[in-house]
Amino acid sequence: MWELCPCGSSLLPAAPPWRSGNHGVWPKSISNALEQALGRLPDRCRRLIELLYFTAEEPTYAEIAEEMGMPVASIGPTRARCLEKLKKLLG
Fold first, then answer.
1. Spatial contact of 38 and 30, defined as CB atoms under 8 Å apart
2. Which of 70, 44, 48 is nearest to 59 (CA)?
3. How far is CA 18 from CA 22, 53, 57, 78, in A?
4. For the whole model, what pTM was predicted?
């Protein structure tokens, strides 16, 4: 069973299977829905969510800030807005 994302969203597992030690794959229906919804997000949101939840490593906020060219303090609020957009897309 997956843990829920620590950000309070019930939409995403806490980590992809390869981060959590579970080497299985996500069910196809979840994978397809996420892929479609992520593709409809603005580029900035999609990239932030990819860095936070879909990379093999867990980058620090400082690394994410540098990669995205944004202040570290903006990552949390931006993440919240992006997850809300993703939630709406997933219905």
1. no
2. 48
3. 6, 11, 9, 25
4. 0.70
Mind listing the domains of the chain with CATH numbers? Answer: 17-90 (1.10.10.10)
The three-state secondary structure class of 42 is coil
Other CB atoms within a 10 A radius of the CB of residue 29 amount to 8
- Per-position pLDDT tens, the chain of length 91: 233 344 444 445 445 554 555 545 667 777 788 888 999 999 999 999 999 988 878 899 999 999 999 999 999 999 999 999 999 998 8
Element (H, E) at 29: helix 28-40
DSSP H or E stretch at residue 60? none
Question: Which residues are within 8 A (CB) of 41 and not within 5 positions of it... i.e. 6 or more apart?
Answer: 49, 82, 85, 86, 89
